[in-house]
Amino acid sequence: MSSYVDQIIEQVSAWPGIRAEPHRFGGVEFDLAGREVGHIHRNGMVDIPFNTAIRNQLLAERKAEPHHILGDSGWITFYMHADSDVPNVLWLFRLAYLFQVIRGRNRTAGLVAVEHELETLRLSDPLRAVFDDLLSKL
Fold it and tell me: What is the pLDDT of residues 19-74, one digit of tens each?
């Protein structure tokens, strides 16, 4: 399991503006401009904060589960079981990264081309609509 976790830590840590540091409950936390993008525990459990609209759509699409403690919040949890889960976890972290880029637009301007990045993630129409709503408020 730890090799999968290490692979994710290495890749996410390399994204523009990401700072990786120890998480207070173990594992590694990824921050962008003072906001947590998410964290990964050594056992393969991944916790990521979104708004409730994104979280609800991810749950509806079965791409994540409610957070293991904060079940009614915007947080999600994903449990890695095999190397085949790595692309799913990287997809969730990239989605969270773009969410935080949009939220912190004053501090994250120019890091990535958000529209292009959203296209590469191939979001479902309902999930893309949530992101389009966020972008329309910029």
Answer: 999 998 889 999 999 999 999 999 999 999 999 999 999 999 999 999 888 778 89
Least confident residue range of 33-42, 85-94, 107-116, 117-126: 107-116
> In whole angstroms, what is the distance from residue 38 CA to residue 96 CA?
7
Total structural domains in the chain? Answer: 1
Structural domain of 78: 2-136
**SS3 at position 123:** coil
Alpha carbon distances (Å) from 115 to 84, 119, 134: 27, 6, 12
CATH assignment of the domain containing 59: 3.90.1150
Q: Cite the beta strand spans of the chain per DSSP E.
A: 18-22, 28-32, 35-40, 45-49, 65-66, 75-79
